[in-house]
């Protein structure tokens, strides 16, 4: 804003500029309603005072000159301070706004110096004119900085053309209305006319340029801090409007300082001071707002104004020329020249837009062809469903996946394709997904059953996206995967020989029986069953006959229990039965009833078996335990196990009820745990290694570390009873036993790593495999990086260690186990899944854990030759390992026939007596120097017998040996 002689600087106001003024500034919560009310009250108070003449002429001059100067100085300080608080591309713009406001404040201060202090008329020209002339250029530069920068050369050209179209049109109209007279005055040659005319032309031209930049920025403004930018645009537009009103003939000759027109300049300065602070949002006003998803028909009309700008500019230019013609005046050459340049700019801009549209059309056609090829060539089915659920598009892949042509599905309801049992779940998930914010949940995944053309229900997995209120479904057939998962789940929870539930599933069902709605029913009982004399069957007529006997015994057990009860095979010749309670409160009657059921089972299982054309007899020892109040599943199963052993010790072929005095067995196990601690502290344990051999070449690829206890006579043997105590301790039944187990596991790992490091330094770069349970790996009493520190201390490369993860308890936190194994795997430690085919949660382990190799359970290997059913299951598990890119190790390869069978099924490695038993360090190094073992091609004998000088190992053949009676 500014004043020059008898006229303030200004120019003709244009309708677009006035329209910008009417837009309310986008106010956020930062300034608050109080700041906006204060701004309105101060501006309104100034306007009222100006309308009333301020009460005196002197006060009117003070408010009209120094009041405007104070408002401009406030805007300059506000913009400068805001520019110092931001660190981004907009800082130069606000510095320019601060300098522009400072020039306006200086011009009004000079004006007040002459009028108020000196009491003189302001000379023409003066320092005030210089200050007012410096108001527009910095503001124009600041607006250019805030405008969104084009990314192409054509964009820069269009930006310049748009600016000239607006500025040239306004210049044409202004020249026709007022500027031509000022130019003719300058040409008259009167004294002092040239400076005054120059000033009269300079102010409107600068205002025209400023208005052009305001309009260009309005259509091309950046999204950053839009509320502050909009407020600044409104402030500059209000200032230009006041200048334009001042230059009109009605106000130019009669203006005095302090009149109502000063309220426009005053409000413009205050609005510019308020812009950077009052319009900011408190929580990140500088952030780019998330894009809104709008429907195509809901685009606002203002979105088309940038496209109409060239035509509006040409219309304004035409009005300027018509004004001269209608007024009867000769068309000015300046008007003709400016109008021609505007038309030329419009033609050039339309040409650029035409070329740009042609390029965009070609690019759009290429992308459309590209995506059409992707959609039509994809093996997944892509469907678009309207908001009503009607399918509007189905890709051609539907014919191959669903067996139904795409044209047949288009127009049908999506719900009609989904299985009725899955429909409710799918509808609930879709509604939840559509109600969620798109930024937080862009997609969802749904698995359900779809009806195929043949009427078969297919398992389909679909990725769902939003699309114009409807859905886009990217679907694929996962029926085979679901079937394989079900098969794996069944294999993980059932015994491969008898197809009865295994220990893991039986334990889970016992837990379910003790919790939930049956938690208060103490008449539930668990039966542990062992077949007496079964070992003689294996020894006399062979393991194949033993397997047939187990299958027949499982069938009898399954037929004997009630429909709601559970029969299971726990391993070997051990079975179990869960007899659900009937809510009876009479303990004696319930014990009598369950005892009768157990006697009937014993009698049924003891009936003669017809195996291989001969009659075979075995007996059954059964232990029974009831669910006493507060008992845990593990304690209940332990009690039944104790009762079963008591039945075997009492003469076999009998039923024994659990009694509390059987806890003496627990005391005996505690004593064994003490012996285990003594053996550890006194160095009675020795470390042996069993070679892991490639079944293709016979090469030793790894060694498996195994602990052996050295008796007082110097004989090495497997401490079966100690290991049993250790396993019970790890599941939490005895905390002291768990501590002993932790100590044994730590000793085994440290000893194995130390020996492996020594072999590596001696040139034997063979990895060592150490068996470790998940509980041991996650033991919180151990240092977090104990394995890593152990490798670093002994200098053993991490790739030379293989951790064999043993079957874990269901209560182990699987997420924590996954994180721990992932951290070790990143360091190069290889992870093996031990006991695959019988362990707990094998499917989850394959899906989530970083497993490198699978170690087949000994129970699968021992019967793979004799049992056709077991052969198929083992082959399927090996096929899964090969498909997942994992190596496989068969544990317990004791016979050449097993080696040949597993190698034919794709097993890559094996360990067992067919190659070598466990070796001490001296024999192991001799074997490593030798490097390979002969791979049996027929009925070959084991390549190297394991053991120590003190005795030989007794190889236990078969998974169905009779359960031994523990020593008294």
From TrEMBL:
Transmembrane segments: 33-54, 66-83, 95-114, 126-147, 154-177, 197-217, 229-251, 301-323, 335-355
Keyword Chaperone assigned: no
Tagged with keyword Calcium: no
Region entry Disordered, spans: 1-21, 939-968
SMART domains: EAL, GGDEF, PAS
InterPro entries referenced in this protein's UniProt entry, alphabetically: Biofilm_reg_signaling, EAL_dom, EAL_sf, GGDEF_dom, Nucleotide_cyclase, PAS, PAS-like_dom_sf, PAS_4
Gene3D superfamilies: 3.30.70.270, EAL domain, PAS domain
Compositionally biased tracts (Polar residues): 958-968
Keywords, sorted A to Z: Membrane, Transmembrane, Transmembrane helix
UniProt cross-references to NCBIfam families, sorted A to Z: GGDEF, sensory_box
Official protein name in the record: Phytochrome-like protein cph2
Record organism: Streptomyces lavendulae subsp. lavendulae
